[in-house]
Write a structure and sequence with these properties.
It contains four helices and ten strands; from the N terminus they run H-H-E-E-E-E-E-E-E-E-H-E-E-H. By secondary structure, it is α+β, with helices and mostly antiparallel strands. It has a single domain (30-201), classed as Immunoglobulin-like. Strands 1, 2, 3, 4, 6, 7, 8, 9 and 10 form a nine-stranded antiparallel sheet that branches. Strand 2 (57-65) and strand 3 (71-78) form a beta hairpin. The protein is globular, with a radius of gyration of 20 Å.
């Protein structure tokens, strides 16, 4: 084997190493924040919201320890009716961080592994508003690291409860029949200050 051939083999091996390592490489913010990664999503009412539906607002915050920690999700959303029977509201991560047509342009549930609902990576669950507000912290099977990261995707809060795939129709296995998209936001990298301020306020 000549020298050129040997160099090409070495370079090819290095490229494979870079490709493999890039899946688990820590974002610089992880080092800045002692091994944790944070993101924030400021919820606003959909710009295409139908008349009569509640105009919700608030934030969804994320925290994950590198490289294999569970993704923690803090939900703080206000604006739900207080003068009617309690109704659970569904929250999902959607494929696209595109709000050009309100929440309608965010695509479908984030589902990188082609799973059946409610096993999508973007299926966060149902939440019960109290006094018009959702305040909760849960864990999610989604991630903010590597090729499956949810950074840059959207969070959507729905009008109704997710039937968790038990509705007996095709829609149930796609989106849980959760109804209209009330509000949404785009997930972006954030400093830990938002999480550190809001987390102590939530009672599990």
């Amino acid at each position: 084997m000549n020298m050129l051939g040997a160099v090409l083999i070495v370079l090819a091996g290095c490229l494979q190493c870079v490709s493999a390592d890039s899946k688990t490489e820590a974002p610089p913010e992880v080092l800045e924040n002692k091994g944790s990664f944070y993101a924030a999503c400021k919820v606003r009412p959909s710009s295409t919201l139908a008349p009569g539906l509640p105009e919700v607002y608030g934030q969804v915050l994320f925290k994950q320890d590198f490289p294999d920690g569970m993704l923690e999700v803090l939900v703080s959303i206000d604006g739900f009716p207080t003068n009617c029977a309690i109704q659970l509201r569904a929250l999902h991560i959607y494929q696209y961080g595109d709000l050009s047509q309100g929440c309608a342009s965010t695509g479908d549930h984030y589902d990188p592994f082609d799973d059946v609902h409610p096993e999508h990576a973007g299926d966060i669950g149902n939440f019960e508003p109290r006094n018009g507000k959702i305040s909760a912290v849960i864990q999610s099977n989604a991630t903010m690291f590597g090729r499956w990261s949810v950074i840059g995707r959207a969070v959507v809060i729905h009008e109704e409860e997710d039937d968790m795939g038990l509705g007996g129709d095709a829609g149930s296995l796609l989106h849980g029949n959760a109804g209209a998209r009330l509000g949404c936001c785009i997930i972006g990298i954030s400093p830990p200050s938002h999480w550190n301020t809001e987390r102590p306020k939530i009672v599990n």
